[in-house]
Amino acid sequence: MSEEGRKASVVAVGTDNSGDNGLCGVLLTLISWLLVLCTLPFSLCVCFRVVQEYERAVIFRLGRLLSGGARGPGIFFILPCIENYTKIDMRTSVFDVPPQEVLTKDSVTVSVDAVVYYRVSNATISVANVENAHHSTRLLAQTTLRNMLGTKNLHEILGDRDGISASMQNSLDSATDNWGIKVERVEVKDVRLPVQLQRAMAAEAEAAREARAKVIAAEGESKASRALKEAADVMKESPSALQLRYLQTLNSISAEKNSTIIFPLPIDFMSQFVNK
User: Which residue spans of the chain are classified as CATH 3.30.479.30?
Assistant: First the structure.
């Protein structure tokens, strides 16, 4: 027997036997069958019901669940007057958890909202074990979100949303298993911080960026100074390299479209004074 069938058999204490309801149940069942036979074919419009592919019907006879679990999809038969049924939608549903004011572990108040995807996994249990499975799941999701985030620090909430969503999904799924509800996915949508905290975090981030920029600029100047020192050493060893650099400088000056042209002195002339 499957797990769903086993759970259904636990809650489905009633059977097709009317004897469970005593002599009164037997008489009412016989009267219902006589009523159906006497009003043929008009009674067929009342006795036959249809549920869609995504629906299931949970049938009660004289207040007891019928054995065999939920009916559907397709057509099924009910006895008038003594049987009634409840349609259950088996499709995945989604609801938004309203923003919850949560005090984190490091004493910061944040507002967090989430979205929950769930479906009815066992129609019989969802009707017999809980008054309103959908409403109960919504309330439980709000409580679970507050309780779980209350044990986290702010940086954990901001940086580990996937882990929080997975933990919340597992917690909800285990709690709603007895209600016939399967929680498929939970996603944390938004984490809203107080305005003062946002400004403090923005100032901290700006200071960190400025510090990184200064470090990068200092590293660049250090590398540039080492490169200049190496270039000076090379030019010192080779006078022709200094002459070539001089000619490149003249070329650069001539390439610029300036109204004033400066003719530097020949480098050989300057070198005489340098030697002296």
Answer: 93-193
- What pLDDT score was predicted for residue 13? 37
The pTM assigned to this predicted structure is 0.64
What is the predicted pLDDT for the residue at 183? 93
Average pLDDT over residues 40-57: 84
Given a contact cutoff of 8 angstroms between Cβ atoms, the answer to whether 198 and 158 are in contact is no
CA 202 to CA 195: how far, in whole Å? 11
The closest of 137, 167, 142, 170 to 152, measured between CA atoms, is: 167
Rounded Cα–Cα distance for residues 192 and 157 (Å): 11
d(CA 236, CA 114): 70
- Would you say residue 14 has pLDDT above 50? no
Cβ partners under 8 Å of residue 234, min gap 6: 241
Question: How many Å apart are CA 139 and CA 43, to the nearest integer?
Answer: 42
| Model pLDDT for residues 209-241, shown as the tens digit of each residue | 788 888 888 888 888 888 877 777 776 776 666
Distance CA 98, CA 95 (A): 9
Q: Tell me, what's the pLDDT at 6? A: 47
- The mean predicted confidence, pLDDT, of the chain is 79
Mean pLDDT in residue range 197-216: 76
Give the angle 269-274-276 at the CA atoms, nearest 5°. 105
d(CA 67, CA 139): 31
In terms of phi and psi (left: phi > 0; alpha: psi -120 to 50; beta: otherwise), the region of 253 is alpha
Considering the domain delimited by 93-193, tell me its CATH architecture: 2-Layer Sandwich (3.30)
Alpha helices in 186-194 (DSSP H): none
HSE-CB of 26 using CA atoms within 13 angstroms: 4
Rounded to whole angstroms, how far apart are CA atoms 25 and 47?
Answer: 19
